[in-house]
UniProtKB/TrEMBL annotation:
Classification via CDD domains: M1_APN_like (cd09603)
Family per record: Belongs to the peptidase M1 family.
Family annotation (Pfam families): Peptidase_M1 (PF01433), Peptidase_M1_N (PF17900)
Name by which UniProt lists this protein: Aminopeptidase N
Positions of the Peptidase M1 membrane alanine aminopeptidase domain: 296-440
Reaction(s) this enzyme catalyzes, per UniProt: Release of an N-terminal amino acid, Xaa-|-Yaa- from a peptide, amide or arylamide. Xaa is preferably Ala, but may be most amino acids including Pro (slow action). When a terminal hydrophobic residue is followed by a prolyl residue, the two may be released as an intact Xaa-Pro dipeptide
Phylogenetic lineage: Bacteria, Bacillati, Actinomycetota, Actinomycetes, Kitasatosporales
EC number: 3.4.11.2
Named cofactor requirement(s): Zn(2+)
UniProt keywords, alphabetically: Hydrolase, Metal-binding, Metalloprotease, Protease, Zinc
Residues covered by region (Disordered): 460-503
Residue ranges constituting the Aminopeptidase N-like N-terminal domain according to the UniProt record: 34-203
Amino acid sequence: MLAIPASAADYSPGAPGIGDPYYPAYGNGGYDVSHYDLRLKYQPETDKLEGTATLLATTTQDLSRFNLDFLLDVSEVRVNGAKASFKTSGEHELEVTPKTPLPKGTPVTVVVRYSGVPSSKEAYGFTSWHRTPDGGVGANEPEAAWWWFPSNDHPLDKATYDVSVAVPDGSQAISNGTLQSTSSRAGWTRFNWRSNKPQATYLATLAIGKFDVTTGTSESGIPIVNAYSKDLGDHYGAARASIERTGEVADWLTEYFGPYPFNALGGYVPNTTETGYALETQTRPFYSPRQFANGTNVSVVVHELAHQWYGNLVSVAGWKDIWINEGFARYAQWLWSEHEGEGTAQELADYVYASLPADDPFWKVRPGDPGPENQFHLAVYDRGALALQALRNEIGDEDFFAILKGWPKEHAHGNATVGEFVRYAERISGRPLAALFDTWLYQPSKPSAPAAREASIAPLTGTAPVQPKSWKKIAATNGVHDHDHKEGHEKGHGHEKEHESEH
């Protein structure tokens, strides 16, 4: 028998989830990660991924064992150098029991050796790893990490990243941040990427394939790396004509949101046929080729880059706070429409309000707490942006734009809730705003005509609402995020159904 110290009874397992009511099994308790070092090797022909992940973490309790969110096959786990025992549980949990329990506040180094074929793994009936003709892509929301690295998969635990990937010569590996170096040896090329600012796990991305890569610098001095799959076919020109404007759009957004928060910019378009969405992966958004089916789509670039502030710099505290990401990214598209002379934010708000009757299910969704089944419902975007126009009309442009700029600074590299935003807006404007937010974000019904008038949202009576010129472009980036979840998220409403989605 091993001698067990008397205090061992005080050590307990970390929780299998971080405590998010929308996704109770996502994330984990008992520790906080500060850095991920991922050293990977990927074979595009077979979709085989081999890796060693090194996690630097600190315990937040006296810890007897802990979980990682992960799906691939693990061959060894070490905790502070000593071999740890491990087993899988639930749909996506790796349970790790270190050789000796870990006191609270201990720095911990966890090394996980693993391999597997990401596209062969499913959890909850879906996969977030997209196979392409020349490789694969990890990108999805709210979960993508499990298919390529072990993690504490929740926005509450942000960390910095080093992602080093070896691929056969002729292929490239695209990830977040800056490309530190590349090297070639014995038929393999290794790409070393670094994200030096805190990044949520769902915002980490990996794409392997054959890309045309363009590099440049924004006018404000941020280095840009864009990548386009060589086999985008007819979508190639439109994709490139849109994403090459990334620097221009990011610089324009700084006027509204403050300085660009990271040291890299870009976007990538892999040849994913089964996905239609775009995703704000940090510094380098993922765009589906389908976003460019009808020609250039700068509006989707505006949306994903707006997320670098609203969603990436300031992340949700819980997934119910998704409005702070999506309502603001959609509102940025409205501001861009105004910038392009294709309809003002006011005209777009009036149109959303007037074009959807009170009995449309759109108004049943509460953007301030939509529920997991409606997390990416159109209402979170359009009703979410409408709420911002109502706020703007209530408090005036000076305070409104001060809030848009001040909020990302206030919570930089952290997390925040909708409630905290409401209190921040009250503080900056000096007005009570709880009733306004309740009407526009929390009531499962269309705001009444008097409420609309009070917020200077004009309900046009007796006439068909006039559609702003930018509406179709914005709607082309629209719709619900179709997760490929087995239970199937409801896909938009009415005339929006045919459109692809964006995060």
